[in-house]
Recover the amino acids of this structure.
């Protein structure tokens, strides 16, 4: 519990831009920053296949600004980035499978647009601080566990390559132009406001939707694959605690959770709060080809610098998540 007492920068009155702020993590961050008194503008393209959902900011619209724009439009972006103190770069095409079907869209959103954000800031707001949501997917199949930041980068899909290229741009712009950029490499994140409505977003969202709908879910492989799951409030804390930290600029840091669980344990925990039923089936070839096996992170680099450690265990996180969605199914799928 000590972590949340740690000093953070004063967010009150700060002008904050959240790119992808109608999505899962961005909207949770937006609400928290509004609570802290920040002047928050949320930017989102609301493309139907992605995670943007008006319900995510239901009840909060009058204390935030909402701008429906696409980060691929650099002309608009060059105005949006002016005169803000902090940018959280959370917009993304997040489906790994989809990145293999439509690699150029992934390239545009997850790579070119990130370079465009940096160029707009370099020209019009070089002092802004930027926090980028990177991913554990860049490591590919772990060669050792837990995975630390020195682990080789061997992405297994187009999404991982583009996310890593973006991360490198943020690092480079810090080194060469002195820009104030930090990347966090997120692991599987779950919680309220998560994108649940289709099967493109990975097993956590799919399992949650099927469990809440009373439908049988399918666990691929033997269900023993290990993951470290972060509840979204912990991830929001990590972004807030990384903000205003000059010593982190130019770096990329793992998030993670000390506890690791197999996929079957995840389902069995879900069964404590839902009427879930499941079957174990062989991996479909499309999924097998980009599966990374077991993954859990060593996040001590970030933790040592910021004192961040996750506070929410899987059981209480899933209980909160189920309670959130139970009464809002019609808004999410
Ligand atoms: N959720 C996870 O488990 C996880 C894990 C690793 C990394 N990440 C990263 O964190 C970030 C946020 O993920 P999330 O789970 O909240 O996803 P999400 O899909 O819920 O949110 C992403 C938001 O970006 C918006 N967006 C997409 N393309 C856009 C564009 N061209 N212009 C403007 N907005 C656009 C979407 O509409 C959506 O609201 C992503 O960059 C993702 O790669 C997430």
């Amino acid at each position: 519990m000590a972590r949340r007492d740690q000093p953070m920068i004063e967010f009150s009155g700060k002008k904050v831009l959240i790119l992808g702020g109608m999505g899962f993590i961005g909207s949770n961050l937006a609400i928290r920053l509004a609570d802290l008194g920040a002047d928050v503008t949320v930017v989102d393209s609301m493309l139907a296949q992605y995670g943007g959902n008006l319900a995510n900011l239901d009840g909060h619209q009058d204390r935030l600004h909402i701008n429906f724009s696409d980060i691929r439009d650099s002309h608009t972006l060059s105005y949006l980035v002016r005169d803000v103190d902090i940018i959280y770069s959370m917009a993304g095409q997040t489906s790994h499978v989809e990145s293999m079907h439509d690699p150029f869209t992934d390239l545009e959103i997850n790579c070119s647009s990130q370079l465009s954000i940096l160029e707009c800031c370099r020209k019009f707001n070089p002092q802004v601080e930027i926090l980028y949501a990177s991913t554990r997917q860049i490591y590919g199949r772990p060669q050792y566990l837990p995975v630390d930041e020195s682990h080789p980068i061997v992405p297994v899909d187009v999404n991982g390559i583009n996310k890593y290229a973006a991360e490198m741009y943020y690092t480079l712009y810090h080194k060469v132009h002195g820009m104030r950029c930090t990347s966090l490499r997120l692991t599987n994140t779950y919680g309220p406001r998560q994108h649940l409505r289709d099967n493109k977003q990975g097993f956590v969202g799919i399992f949650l939707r099927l469990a809440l709908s009373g439908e049988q879910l399918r666990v691929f492989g033997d269900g023993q694959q290990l993951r470290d799951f972060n509840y979204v409030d912990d991830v929001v804390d990590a972004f807030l605690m990384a903000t205003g930290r000059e010593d982190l600029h130019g770096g990329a840091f793992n998030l993670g959770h000390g506890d690791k669980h197999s996929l079957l344990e995840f389902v069995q925990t879900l069964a404590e709060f839902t009427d879930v039923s499941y079957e174990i089936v062989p991996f479909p070839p499309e999924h097998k080809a980009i599966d990374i096996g077991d993954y859990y992170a060593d996040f001590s680099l970030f933790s040592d610098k910021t004192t961040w450690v996750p506070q929410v265990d899987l059981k209480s996180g899933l209980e909160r998540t189920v309670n959130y969605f139970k009464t809002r199914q019609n808004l999410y799928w």
